[in-house]
Amino acid sequence: MMAMVISGVTRACARMHFRARALTVQVLGLQSLRGFRTQSPSLAFAKDIFLGKINKAEAFPYPEISNEELEEIGQLVAPVEKFFMEDVDSRKIDLEATIPPKTMSGLKELGLFGIQIPEEYGGLGLSNTMYARLGEITSMDGSIAVTLAAHQAIGLKGILIAGNDEQKSRYLPKLASGEHIAAFCLTEPGSGSDAASIQSRATLSEDKKYFVLNGSKIWISNGGFADIFTVFARTEVVDTDGKKMDKITAFIVERAFGGVTSGKPEDKLGIRGSNTSEVHFENTRVPVENVIGEVGGGFKVAMNILNSGRFSMGSASAGMIKRLIEMTAEYAGTRKQFGKKLGEFGLIQEKFATMAQQAFVMESMAYLTAGMMDRPGMPDCSVEAAMVKVFSSEGAWMCVSEALQILGGLGYMKDYPYERYLRDSRILLIFEGTNEILRMYIALTGIQYAGKILAGKIKEMKKGNLSVFMEIFREKLQNSLSKKIDLGLSGPDGVVHPSLTDSAKKLEENVFYFGKTVDGLLYRFGKSIIDEQLVLKRIADVLIHIYAMTAVLSRASRSITIGLRDHDHEVLLANTFCAQAYFQNNYRLVQLEKNSPENHDASIKKIAQQILERRTYVCSHPLDRTF
Amino acid sequence: MNATRFLFHTRSLRLPLLCVAGLRNKSLSSGPIALHRFLSSDHCTRRCLCSKPVFRRDPSQSEESQNKPDKTLISYDNLFERAALDSKNKATFSHVLDVFKNKDIRRRGHVEFIYAALKKMPEFGVEQDLAIYNKLLDVFPKEVFIPRNFIQRMFNHYPRQQECGVQILEQMENYGVLPNVETKVLLIQIFGKKSHPIRKYQRLMYWFPRFKHVNPYPVPRELPQDPVDLARFSLHRIAADLNAKVTVYQMPSSDHNEDGNLVCQPYIVGIQSPDQREVLAKHRPNRPVFVEGPFPLWLKRTCVYYYVLRADPLPPEEKVEEPVDPERNFFYPLELELDYDRDLGDDEDFDVDEVEEGPVYAMCMTDSGDRDTLAKWISGLQETNPILGCTPTVFRLDSGPSEVQSCTVSDHPEIEDVLQGQKMAQ
Question: What SS3 class is residue B348?
């Protein structure tokens, strides 16, 4: 009891220091509290890469939190970890497909339902970095992690980032305590990412006091028991020329408004304990005060919510893999085959190396991104967050599969948790924007930026301006003669530790040629590059790996410099990863060249077209005969 | 060798044509047959070359031998005609073959008999029956015609019999019957391993399997008997859209009305895909839609007729390009704000002059192509395409095939009539 009181006091003190900071991150209106550096919202790191430059200031040095914050998070993490270890029975949650009320109330007591809600509304008011740290723990159970994420990463995020003070003070306290659960209602039967097929409609009543909402939403996480819904529906908007248009508007809908019904919970492959169901709205009366943002501005709200919710997947996946490494290392160290321990076999060692490397990279990316987001001035880190999501979801799927493989047949059994982890991690590649869609987002956002900046040069080239060609030729000649690419990461005023110089050089080379490749692709395809999805996929993959390399270099440099424990292992991981990523990136860049023999896109498309034309596997059976 | 080379040449000439035809016109079903015909003509040349020396040696005999089969053919024809009195089917045909085989151990006159049998096969409906062909080959006496020394081997041994054997294979080829191992064994037993019929067999086995699937849109051997099923099959074939759905607007039926007259209700089977429905929904009601037809569709030897509902293409000044809604995709932009396009060096499309055609909204088949029936189709379509209710429908019908058959050709070959959709709905 005494200890708790003391820890409560230190927590409160610690909060005083960083409260303002946490708020500025979340609340645009309170930004002036910080009082310094009012820079315009700008997408920092990723966009420069498209021009073949590295914005050192953004990624180096690796973001840190203050000692007070560290202490604070340490005090938060310990009880949460204890709770997950002792009071959460993941197997039971998975089998019974529900989270027991006792567990839910425990989560509420820990304050996990209001991690990022400011303290003035009763939440923990944590920064993105600390949210990511907690994500490492909550990922111990996929169902709980998804329930929490659906509540606060998307469900109430609309109120948090776009709601007015009145809405915040009305809804956030109860949401923070977990008395009310939030859900995010966007997907409809005919619409995944396509806003045009949203059919739900809200009509303004005659007295203009409320909207009447009608429509159905599917696959709503927490849909079965949520009390507060962020709902997107069409409304009629009169635009500036007096034309009537249908636009999407975001609403806060309480279940208590009436006319809200939920379907039965969906039976799923993984995250079975989380609740997913249909939600129907029938003549639900929503007061006009409950519009988030402005009427007709729902599209932006939805986009911002979706873009802001992704970064935490990196730390969550890393947390999961770190636990898997512990569990499987235990097994590999005890189990003997042919008189040798499992861990002595090269093929098993390889799996551990892969898992450690993936966890290391994900972690580095996740905390770099969270740190960037925590900087004042609301930097737009949506592309970085998307990169973290894509990399970590695919890494998690691969690592879980490898961990299961280490155990062989045992891993396949329901007695062990590996198959559950495997099922749970599959959703990571799908929700919060499928990885395919996010790759398009990553590539196109950067291409759009680079395309505008390079527009002048490309247009001159297309006109056949000789001086531009001469300039390019001179540049090329210079590059090929001197062959020195220096973007300033290493060297006298470098930011990377000398023991990572080789890797930094590799990163610089990748970035430099990536810039050249993007330049060439823009010249070749112009705006029609949007239809070249296989090209865009490679662009996104190169960028993701460049960002990953940057993150590990930044992190490892910091670790060496301040002398963190086992930093030599980090250097080993960083150098290995950079060497591998460098080769992969080079291969992708070669594929992106014109008439590259490594590029089989045309054939790949042809195969797919022939299959889709007939909607079946085309070949004859190998046993078929003609005579 | 010569012949193969020749074949190869013609193959390269003929094949692209076939393929193009096959792709363009899905109703083409006789691809392999055309080729067989061609192949057979090639064989004729070769056969003539082979048999020439024989004729040259004894012209008088050759003349005799040319006349003689005709006479004997008549006598063997009678054999078949007698059998035909019973019934013309496989059983009677093979019975005749059995009778001939068992009549005389020497099989006297078997060449003439085989020629006669070949001629009669279509009549008995066994022209595509491999078993019968094998049985026919079995009529030949075995081992007699196999050359035994190099001189026999050098010259054309038993040319008449060999030619007859080739003729059997030729007929198989023309009817698209693929020989089997039994055929081969028989041929070896009769003529030996390097005889002309065996060569013919080898050529058949070389080309037949290769061209078995030359038609990418094969028509089944047996077409459905029921006209509605046939219409369904044909419509799917023309629509070439896996999403297209067939609707039977009216089943065929015949009933007596109050006056006691027989009233036949024609069947109406239509097809429409969701894409077509979407395009039709965007049709502007002030522009008419046309019902046109009948157009023929050949399915092997069967010809069916279909009608289309279409519109004229929009004149260029009325076309509006819908701008991409920037608020459509929650995740990534659907259009880049760049003002330069694909470079010419990367534009791999061919320069094609395209003639724009009007959209086809739906198709149907019916056994009576009169306006009333087609109006029923249109009113049936209205249930899923309400826009047809306010769009003028113009019927542009050629005299239908049924009218030609029943010799009631109307004086006006083209009936044009404007019908307001609203009226039709009633």
Answer: coil
Which residues from chain B sit within 8 angstroms of residue A306, using beta carbons? 330-331
Pairing of strands A182-185, A228-238: parallel
Which of B23, B204, B330 should one mutate to test binding to chain A, selecting the residue with the greatest count of A CBs within 10 A?
Answer: B330
Which pLDDT value is given to residue B221? Answer: 85
B346: nearest CB among A459, A524, A615: A524
Question: Residue B393 pLDDT more than 80?
Answer: yes
pTM score, two decimals? Answer: 0.83
Q: For chain B, what is the domain count?
A: 3
Residue B298 has pLDDT above 50, yes or no: yes
Question: Would residue B54 count as lying in a domain?
Answer: yes
Mean pLDDT score of chain A, rounded to an integer?
88
| DSSP, res A414 | T
Q: Are residues B108 and B185 in the same domain?
A: no
**pLDDT of A483:** 67
Does the distance separating the beta carbons of B331 and A438 come in below 8 Å?
yes
Q: Does B336 touch chain A (CB under 8 A)?
A: yes
Percent of chain B at pLDDT above 70?
A: 76
Q: Do B205 and A444 touch (CB under 8 A)?
A: no
Q: Is A432 a catalytic residue?
A: yes
On whether the CB atoms of residues A310 and A159 are closer than 8 A, the answer is no
Asked if residue A145 lies in contact with residue A132, where contact means CB atoms within 8 angstroms, the answer is no
User: Given B185, B213, B241, which residue is the final one in a domain?
Assistant: B213
pLDDT tens-place string over residues A86-113: 999 999 999 999 999 999 999 999 999 9
Q: Is B349 on the interface with A (CB under 8 A)?
A: no
With beta carbons less than 8 A apart as the criterion, state whether A162 and A206 touch.
no
Q: Does B110 share its domain with B194?
A: no
Catalytic residue selected from A402, A432, A508, A570? A432
Segments of B120-258 assigned E as strands: 245-250, 253-256
Whether the Cβ atoms of residue A509 and residue A490 lie closer than 8 Å to each other: no
Query: Residue A267: is it exposed, middle or buried by C-beta count within 10 angstroms (0-12/13-18/19+)?
Result: exposed
Pair (B122, B135) in one structural domain: no
Domain final residue pick, B106, B126, B146: B126
Judge whether residue A24 has pLDDT over 70: no
Residue B401's pLDDT band (cuts 50, 70, 90): low
What is the token pair recorded at A584?
């992969």
CB distance B209–A627 less than 8 Å?
Answer: yes
Q: What pLDDT, in 10s, does the model give residues A525-551? A: 988 999 999 999 999 999 999 999 999
Where residue B269 falls among pLDDT bands split at 50, 70, 90? very high
Range of the domain at B394: 227-314+356-425
Nearest to A626 among B212, B337, B345 (CB): B212
Give backbone dihedrals phi and psi of B197, rounded to 5 degrees, phi first. -60, -35
Q: Are residues B147 and B243 in the same domain?
A: no
Best mutation target among A301, A444, A620 (most B Cβ atoms within 10 Å) is A444
Look at A445 and B332 and tell me if their CB atoms are within 8 Å. Answer: yes
Beta bridge partners of B304: B297
Neighboring chain B residues of A437 at a CB cutoff of 8 Å: 331-332
Q: Is the pLDDT of residue B260 over 90?
A: no
Please choose, from the candidates B51, B75, B330, the residue with its C-alpha nearest in 3D space to the C-alpha of residue A298.
B330
Q: Of residues A474 and A326, which shows the higher confidence score? A: A326
Q: Is B330 on the interface with A (CB under 8 A)?
A: yes
CA distance A197 to chain B (A): 9
Substitution target in A184, A301, A442, A448 with the highest count of B β-carbons within 10 Å is A448
Tell me the per-residue pLDDT of B35-82, one tens digit each, with 9 for 90 and over: 444 334 444 434 433 333 333 333 444 444 444 445 555 677 788 888
